[in-house]
Amino acid sequence: MLTRLHDLLHLRTSPVIFFGSAAIILAFVLGTILFTDPLNAAVSGASDWLLTNLGWFYILGVTTFLVFLVVIAVGRFGRVKLGPDDEPPEHSGPAWFGMLFAAGIGSILMFWGVAEPISHFGDPPRGADLGIEAGTRAAAKDAMNFTYYHFTLHTWAIFTLPALCFAYFIHKRNLPPRVSSIFQPLLGERIHGPIGKAIDIVAIVGTIFGVAVSVGLGTLQINGGLNQLFGVPESAGWNLIIIGVVSGLALISVSLGLKKGIKVLSNLNIVVAVLLLIFVLVAGGSTLFVLKGTLESFGSYLVNLPELALWNDTFANTGWQNTWTVFYWAWTITWSPFVGIFIARISKGRTIRQFVSGVLAVPSAFSVLWFGIFGYASFDIELRGEGGLVDRVVTDGDIPGALFAFLDHYPASFLVSVIAIVLVVIFFVTSVDSAALVTDSMANGHEDYNPLGQRIFWGLAIGLVTATLLVFSGEDGLTALQSTIILVGLPFFVMGWFQMYALLRALREDAGELPQIRTREWAQVLPPEEYERREEDDEFDTEDYVVEPTSTTGVPVMSDLYEDPDGPGDETPTSGTLPARTGSARAPLPEHGRDESR
């Protein structure tokens, strides 16, 4: 039946995955509209239960992901290439770094650049625990600690784990660009069966919801900016109009294709964002204060990172972490497949060590600059300027309007705010455009010819879910986004643990286990006086004893098991030395000391 419907609509995808994902999305939309109050109560109740009982699981999961990535990068598998062993990277270092810059961080930077630091400055997360008073220098330092915690290494660990798995299984094992491919070491051919299809449906639905939350946050921010500049009311009707405009522009970009659509918009994003960052640094009159503060706060973050990585607000139990950290982790992990596939696509030919260090370090470094500059410029306004940001963001709860309230303290504020709105729109257009392309490839299982209608459908689905969450959920927009995404994020965290195991198992299967280390063997040494006594005593045999420490074997030399000792044509062994597996040159063998018996 599904196949006939698939052919009738002239699709070119997996019928079960496509229609299964579409059915869940449409069921959510219709259920929310028709049964708003019961569904809202159910989602809120389940979300509250998860926050209360499993918030620690989200915190532990992301920190574990980060530790796993660092360990695997510095270990022996760090030199394994993501692709054929002899293939060089597809993109040069500078080009690769530039594309990493554009991978998924634009929308985050624009929405939270001012809102995050100023929120924690006006309401310190550890105020009850450490006695930090709001609006003080101590509050500013702790605000930056948490801002960096939320938007640097930990956030990018969430993106890097699936990205590394995608890169390995797509480029090394040549599997389809689907989440189920990551589980091939566990499932085998069953990745094409019901279990694999169920995994892909969950991944696609989660990606749609994750991107919808991002677009929803952007919609609230755009509406807040229009309200400040032009008096446009912050209402459901205007939210629908903004969602419609963003979705429409995204569909135009989808229709134009990758080279004319996403590429042009992404390049424009990067240039305008960097210019905005420079403007904030230079035009505010506090350049030295901002630069010194950014450097100092980064050092403070590194010192406090071990504590922050496992902090659970145990004693104060204010609930702060549930609405901030846990929400961030759940939101980020739901759209990590989308970002992960993009990063995997551009990283073929790099080693795991290069991949992990680059993907963790480059975006994190830019986030340090962005949040440091916007954060300390905000603190300067509060501590040494006119103030008002804390009242707007913390007291009034206007998080979406934080950026525009901040820019109001700068010269040419109207013009710069208009540019900021346009930048936010472009960021979210590229997010929807890219998500539609990636979601379609996950449903299809390949990146070749795909009918345009399929990509348009996924773009429409993102806009539809966004509108449902913001307008028809029965709650205020931000609360609805948070409650829904915390639920959707749970299965992704569970899958993350299996992804680590699957990747490690695949690496061991493909690279082989290192053989047991062998060393020289030594004769048993006796004290001289005891050796002489035994020499004189006929009851003892001193053949196996020595006085001077003496080795009985030469230095072992590990043979290269990847070299065929019987000539060409024989099957290549599946284990061997690390240099052999990674293509690096072996050290020359010593002329003497080889243990010929080995």
Summarize the helices and strands and which ones pair or pack.
Elements: H1 2-8, H2 15-34, H3 36-74, H4 93-101, H5 106-122, H6 127-130, H7 137-151, H8 153-172, H9 184-187, H10 194-230, H11 236-256, H12 258-283, H13 287-310, H14 320-334, H15 336-345, H16 352-384, H17 389-395, H18 402-407, H19 413-444, H20 452-471, H21 477-511, E1 524-525, H22 528-536, E2 545-546, H23 578-582
Parallel strand pairs: 1-2
Task: Provide an overview of this structure.
With 598 residues, this protein is an all-alpha fold. It is built from 23 helices and two strands. The chain has helices at residues 2-8, 15-34, 36-74, 93-101, 106-122, 127-130, 137-151, 153-172, 184-187, 194-230, 236-256, 258-283, 287-310, 320-334, 336-345, 352-384, 389-395, 402-407, 413-444, 452-471, 477-511, 528-536, 578-582; strands at residues 524-525, 545-546. The chain has a two-stranded parallel ribbon. Helix 10 packs across helix 20 (452-471) and helix 13 packs across helix 16. It is globular and about 110 Å long. The N and C termini lie far apart (64 Å). The relative contact order is 0.16. Mean pLDDT is 87; it is low at 567-598.
